[in-house]
Amino acid sequence: MSRVRFLLAFAAALAALWVAPLVLPIGDYTHNIVGLTFMFMAAALAWNWLGGYVGQISFGHAAMFGVGGFVAARIMLSSGLPFSVAWLLGGLAAGLFGLLWGHPTLRLRGPYFSIATIGVGEATRLVATYWSDFTGGSSGLSLPLAGNPTKYQLYWYGLYLLGGAVLISYGLARSRIGLGLSAIKEDVEAAGDLGVNPTLYQDIVLFLSGTMVGVCGGFYASYQAFIDPQDMFSFDRSIGLILMAVIGGIGTVLGPVWGAIVFVIIQEFLLANYSELYLGLYGALLILIILFEPLGLTGLVRRLHRLAIPVRRAT
Amino acid sequence: MGEVVVLAVSAVLLAGFYAAMAYGLGLIYGVLRIVNLAHGGIIMASAYVTWQLFDRFAIDPFLAIPIVLVVFFAIGVGIYLGLVRFLPRGPAGAVQSLLLLFGVWLVIRNVAYLLFTGNEQVIHTGYATSSVRILGGSFSATRLAVFAVATVALFTLHLLLTRTYLGKAIRAVAQNPDSCTLAGINVERIYVFTFGLGTALAGLAGTLASTLFAFNPSFGASELLKSFVIIVLGGLGSIVGIALGALVLAFAEVFAVYAVPPYLTTAVGFVLLVVVLVLRPGGLFGQRVLR
């Protein structure tokens, strides 16, 4: 897709989604869930910058989600700053936190990095759970009602988040940095020899990814109006981001967006009734996708596309 | 002074268990270049199998070890033949194998949850409360038995890898699979066997863990992490490296009680990991295991 066509399609989609709730008869429940899904899409895209573009699978993104959420909540509780500023500050805190653990661990490749992120996630969760002065411990934090947007308004803020994440995804993939990232993914040492600084590039991506996920955490805090560390920092949250990206197509530009839709549908409509099966279902999905269609939905669509449009023969 | 000695003995006992726990992960990584993310799930599953054998058939956990080894060897072979075999080898398969085995872990956890609920389980053996005095401290007989079993298992494994044709073949495949094919070694069969052996070792670790700790379906995450810390610390070269890595981790954890609140002891291993990776990316001992 050329750049112009992409931007046109992007603007059209954004405008359509912006006016949709105003002109279409959408129920409150659907409206709110769609708003939340926008946030998940943005977070899954952010995970994909690191997990897909660079191939560094993080099992610890819940740490940044939680840091973003709690910093934003604390700022809203203690100062009169508007919620959007609180989200951004929370996101920055999360991005910096990402750099703090990421700078030493990103020199690891593949499985080594991944397992280190399991450690990051668990350690952060433990500290957050016991640091009750900041996080409220197991009783959590309630956000002030004044100044906090309603779920109805959050639909549009979710849309802005998604719009930003899509633009960054596209920009990263098409830029010099994106080329550098694929080079690092293929072969770190060769990339280094060609003048791509792997440490710098990966730090940049982790910072971007952590900041975006942190802002999503702030959004989630506003959405729930109540947060507790067990939920914000849970391992399941990190797993959720991985699943969205894998279902949609890991490493593709827009795959995580479609993955997030499937993920939310599974969660809201199937698992509401069978909550004891969710881990197994996610696990089975992962196994099936990796074995049969490693690029997820994107791979499936590409395959169907090839089938539908026969190869033109030279005449 | 006396307290330090007691803690040191305690750390050594813990290290025995840790070494046995880490070896399965290290073996599979060394030969197949795959990190078995289902390692923690296997440990948890084996703890449940041991508990069931004890609860239903009154088989003592330590006598259940042969059964557990056979069962989990078969499970490992099954996972390899049914799933892992289809993944691409080399760096391209690394991400895929990670996600695939992570999926296996989630499924195992869910099955355990469905069968046995999320409640904590404990195995109460008749000798659970008996203890032995060593160097002025009293240590439970179970912990000594776990240490003994782990040590015997590691020595047996060492002999298997260094003294038998099969062991030599495994080590050769770890170094260079292509030349092994030329030398007439069935590399695929070595992969199957190694995956089975690594899984059986994780099974052994689960049985040992079940006698020491309470467990539930999410048990195993920190065991996976610790196993990983140990193979990074010690390198994959030898039993000695694994044993040293396990000792370092166990001492750090046991003596951390002086410095950090108890709930943070789990994080000690992780901090150690990051520190070592920053200072010595090749691991503390032995050859470089990280690129």
From TrEMBL, chain A:
Protein name, as recorded: Branched-chain amino acid ABC transporter permease
UniProt entry tagged with the keyword Membrane: yes
PANTHER family: HIGH-AFFINITY BRANCHED-CHAIN AMINO ACID TRANSPORT PROTEIN BRAE (PTHR30482:SF10), HIGH-AFFINITY BRANCHED-CHAIN AMINO ACID TRANSPORT SYSTEM PERMEASE (PTHR30482)
This protein's UniProt keywords: Cell membrane, Membrane, Transmembrane, Transmembrane helix
Compartmental location: Cell membrane
Lineage, top ranks: Bacteria, Bacillati, Actinomycetota, Actinomycetes, Micromonosporales
Membrane-traversing stretches: 31-50, 57-77, 83-102, 154-173, 204-227, 239-266, 278-301
Membrane topology: Multi-pass membrane protein
Primary subcellular site in the record, as a coarse category: membrane
InterPro entries the UniProt entry points to: ABC_transp_permease, LivM-like
UniProt entry tagged with the keyword Mitochondrion: no
Xref: CDD domains: TM_PBP1_LivM_like
Protein origin, superkingdom: Bacteria
Pfam families for this protein: BPD_transp_2
UniProtKB/TrEMBL annotation, chain B:
Membrane topology: Multi-pass membrane protein
Localisation: Cell membrane
InterPro entries: ABC_transp_permease (IPR001851), BCAA_transport_permease (IPR052157)
Pfam families hit by this protein: BPD_transp_2
TM ranges: 34-51, 63-83, 95-116, 137-161, 190-215, 227-252, 258-279
Keyword entries, A-Z: Amino-acid transport, Cell membrane, Membrane, Transmembrane, Transmembrane helix, Transport
Descriptive protein name: Branched-chain amino acid ABC transporter permease
Species lineage: Bacteria, Bacillati, Actinomycetota, Actinomycetes, Micromonosporales
